[in-house]
């Protein structure tokens, strides 16, 4: 279900293998200034992920606000948080979105009021080291409790899954906050009951300003969603929001808004269809 400015979309790129001409055709749907952010990648898979990520952003904004692709202006804060520049909507005062990719999937999530962060993970097994050796490289980013839960899992597969899920929650939080790579992930401690009823402790104190969800895309891919009160955004990102303080306005409480539930699977052709139809309409007129 989708409501208002809330969206949850994913694209499976594993079977999408466009020819060079087809790739250029899809790329042409986007404004020219976006092209270098995609073509700078050398590997084909990286280019595919970059292109689909941008297509998701533009297609989502177009669906929510009806803005033609060529008139959509997406800027970034100094920390790298993307935001929509050219709309101010009282219905969606803090419209924001977060894109992510890993493995076979590229996804996007949006919210009209509260902050949103998305992180997709592929539960892939490292090829040159064991799962436990791989996990140990990141021990400094977890609290003692988190590390205990990871390393005391029943087997290495379970340990790897616990590691990825916890890591993904941390990444989703940071992306929602808009802080960029400078935020110390070890400051965050996630507590949960079998990965439900997830709460976050920041510097040892539980925060009531956040809500978290984990979604299983398939047996190898998961998505983490972080939803935060807009007052928690870093200043550069907060300055792009219309409404950060909701005290005394319960009808605007971001956590009373309906959840979007699971993700809707989109195809690349679905993402570009509207833009192509608009171009054909202009040519015909």
TrEMBL record:
Annotated 4'-phosphopantetheinyl transferase N-terminal domain residues: 14-112
Record keyword Transferase present: yes
Keywords in alphabetical order: Transferase
Pfam families, per the entry: AASDHPPT_N, ACPS
Gene Ontology BP term (one): lysine biosynthetic process via aminoadipic acid
A GO term, aspect molecular function: magnesium ion binding
Gene Ontology cellular-component annotations: cytosol
Protein EC: 2.7.8.7
Entry-linked InterPro entries: 4-PPantetheinyl_Trfase_dom, 4-PPantetheinyl_Trfase_dom_sf, AASDHPPT_N, P-Pant_transferase_sf
Leading EC class: transferase
Residue ranges of domain 4'-phosphopantetheinyl transferase in the record: 116-223
Protein name: holo-[acyl-carrier-protein] synthase
């Amino acid at each position: 279900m989708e409501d208002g400015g809330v969206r949850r979309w994913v694209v499976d790129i594993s079977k999408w293998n466009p020819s060079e001409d087809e790739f250029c055709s899809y790329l042409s749907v986007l404004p020219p200034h976006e092209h270098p952010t995609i073509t700078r990648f050398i590997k084909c898979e990286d280019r595919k992920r970059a292109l689909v990520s941008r297509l998701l952003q533009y297609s989502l904004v177009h669906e929510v606000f009806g803005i033609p692709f060529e008139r959509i202006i997406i800027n970034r804060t100094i920390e790298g948080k993307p935001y929509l520049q050219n709309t101010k909507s009282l219905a969606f005062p803090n419209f924001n979105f977060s894109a992510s990719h890993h493995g076979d999937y590229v996804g996007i999530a949006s919210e009209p009021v509260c902050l949103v962060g998305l992180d997709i993970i592929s539960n892939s097994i490292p090829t040159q080291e064991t799962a436990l050796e791989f996990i140990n490289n990141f021990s400094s980013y977890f609290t003692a409790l988190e590390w205990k839960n990871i390393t005391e899992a029943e087997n290495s597969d379970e340990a790897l899954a616990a590691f990825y899920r916890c890591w993904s929650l941390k990444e989703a939080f940071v992306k929602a906050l808009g802080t960029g790579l400078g935020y110390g992930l070890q400051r965050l401690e996630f507590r949960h009951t079998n990965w439900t009823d997830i709460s976050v402790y920041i510097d040892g104190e539980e925060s009531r300003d956040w809500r978290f969800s984990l979604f299983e895309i398939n047996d190898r891919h998961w998505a983490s969603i972080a939803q935060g009160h807009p007052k928690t955004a870093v200043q550069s990102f907060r300055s792009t929001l219309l409404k950060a303080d909701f005290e005394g306005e319960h009808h605007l409480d971001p956590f009373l808004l309906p959840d979007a539930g699971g993700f809707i699977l989109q195809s690349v052709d679905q993402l570009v269809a509207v833009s192509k139809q608009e171009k054909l309409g202009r040519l015909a007129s």
